[in-house]
Amino acid sequence: MLLLALDTSTRQASIALCSEDDVYNEYSWRIGNNHSVELLTRIERMMVESKIALPQLDAIAVATGPGSFNGIRVAVATAKSLAFVLKKPLVGVSTLDIIAVQQQYWHGPVYALIEAGRGELYSACYAFEAIADSAGKLSYQMQRLSDYALLSPALIAAYAREQVTTWSKVSGSGEQPMPPFLFCGEISAASHQALLDEMQEQALFVDRLQAIRRASVLASLALSRLHAGQQDDPLLLEPLYLRRPSITTSQRKRPLLGNPESETPPGQSQTEREQGALRH
Hints:
- The protein is of the alpha/beta class.
- It has 2 domains: 3-96 and 213-227, 2-Layer Sandwich (Nucleotidyltransferase, domain 5), CATH 3.30.420; 107-205, Nucleotidyltransferase, domain 5, CATH 3.30.420.
- It is built from 7 helices and 11 strands.
- The strands form 2 sheets. Strands 6, 7, 8, 9, 10 and 11 form a 6-stranded mixed β-sheet that branches. The chain has a 5-stranded mixed β-sheet with strand order 3-2-1-4-5, with helices on both faces.
- β4, α2 (69-86) and β5 form a beta-alpha-beta unit.
- α1 (35-50) packs across α2 (69-86) and α4 (153-171) packs across α5.
- The chain is globular and about 50 Å long.
- The model is unreliable at 252-280 (pLDDT under 50).
């Protein structure tokens, strides 16, 4: 099965063309805020280099967030359009899942993080269980221990401490010492230090370079879900936003939007005038 995977959830982007056994091509680069400008160009270049046409694809996968509002919107809209036009299956995967599964070899709990601004982090906690099949092939089953959340470092640390008992039950470690939490993802030095101050010896951190998301990992998760009979409706798939996007009011419309100095015509309520302004 040939799958195109797209991830522009943050200023770090990645796209890949993969099958179950091979990576045909993969780009990972710092996209900054140029998601809408660079994504389609990179897809086109990758398909040309791989000598594969879009109709040859069997499925599309996309990272659904959380992360950058514009970045997620661009990737999800592109993936939905491709899946709809090409009539191919579509799979959406949380960006936090992608970050976490790259650290699946860790024997303790994994905390995936993305910087969200305002002193908060997008976060989710995971545990992984090693499973070997009859052929001796090793795989890891992922279990998410928390909801996808938007929290401060202090609240993340508080939740992590509460999860010690839960994780011990999941892992069957019993009375054995709890392994440190492994924090990974795109976080600032300030968030790193805040978590370290709260968690002390209970926290370890993955280097930023080792935590960079790879679209081939997204492809692997999506392929597993496709083989399990799971896919998303292109008309219904939505980005995972944990915070409402900031919307700036147009300066041209501002005098009509609740300005106490503007006059309301007789017989028309302020709410009616605001709704009329928003329609133009």
